[in-house]
Design brief:
Strand order of the largest sheet: 1-2
Distance between the termini: 46 Å
Shape: globular
Structural class: mainly alpha
Bound molecules: zinc ion
CATH superfamily of the largest domain: Rhomboid-like
CATH class of the largest domain: Mainly Alpha
Number of strands: 2
Length: about 280
């Protein structure tokens, strides 16, 4: 059921049409383009699996988990920005980021912190942006490349803010700026009227959002800048969906990003509950 060993498939190296049973791809010469029947289904997995929904679900589940972890603290009313705010202790346990865990060798926090949020407004705001921009980036680059862009830019944002000693930080906003950066890169590379409009629109959004960050308390502006650069660079490095279908390299990178994130949460919880 899972394997596709006959008929036409897209080559997992060059993304062009070829035969599942062909010994070499007629376009690029790749050996065994059918990957023993697994090339087609692998492409289908990334195509049918909605990363934007998965991220939404992960953020909401982890937000609830961090609230439940320390309910007394979460329910203590503080201010409008701290409504239903998980305690720092709960966020640490699930892999909060910042210079402190980074210097303690907790490398995984540059991935896990992407999915953690410090309050109700924080998570609502970020999820709305992810749901707006995720499908856009998927359309321009492809589903596996969206995973790569989201993960690389979130991590890049935290690497930058760690380098400047921001002690404690959580949230997907580095990744959100990365999605904007990738859309700006797309507009630049694509050119023409559509490309120019794309570049203008997302460039403006990024600029307005970036400036707004300086007028709100507790915003990690360095992670915003780092995330944008990470997303822009990823957008320049990866192929555009309309120019080349996703290939083995994209699937491997996306799988590596997902595995590293899941393993990171494992490390975070083991570290937290081991003592
Ligand atoms: Zn090929």
């Amino acid at each position: 059921m899972f394997r596709k060993t006959s008929g036409s498939i897209l080559c997992p190296s060059c993304g062009r049409l070829t035969h599942a049973a062909a010994p070499v791809c007629l376009v690029c010469g790749r050996r065994n383009p059918g990957m023993w029947g697994f090339a087609g289904p692998l492409r289908q997995v990334f195509r049918s699996w909605d990363f934007t929904n998965a991220v939404t679900l992960a953020c909401v589940a982890l937000y609830i988990a961090t609230l439940v972890f320390d309910p007394a603290s979460a329910l203590r009313p503080r201010g409008i920005f701290d409504v239903f705010a998980p305690s720092n202790r709960a966020l640490w346990a699930f892999g909060a980021g910042g210079a402190i865990p980074w210097q303690a060798g907790h490398w995984w926090t540059i991935l896990t912190a992407i999915y953690l949020h410090g309050g109700l407004l924080h998570i609502i705001f970020n999820i709305l942006w992810i749901r707006q921009l995720g499908p856009e980036v998927e359309g321009c680059y492809g589903p596996a490349r969206l995973v790569v862009i989201f993960t690389v830019s979130g991590a890049a944002g935290f690497v930058v803010s760690n380098a400047f000693d921001v002690p404690f930080t959580v949230g997907a906003s580095g990744s959100i700026f990365g999605l904007l950066g990738a859309l700006v890169a797309y507009g630049r590379r694509r050119g023409g009227t559509f490309g120019r409009l794309q570049l203008q629109q997302y460039g403006q959004w990024a600029l307005v959002l970036f400036i707004a960050g300086f007028f709100m308390a507790g915003v990690n502006n360095l992670a915003h800048a780092g995330g944008f650069v990470g997303g822009f660079a990823s957008g320049l490095a990866l192929s555009l969906a309309e120019r080349r279908a996703e290939t083995t390299v994209d699937w491997l990178l996306a799988s590596a990003a997902i595995v590293a994130t899941v393993v990171g949460f494992g490390f975070a919880l083991i570290t937290a509950f081991a003592h």
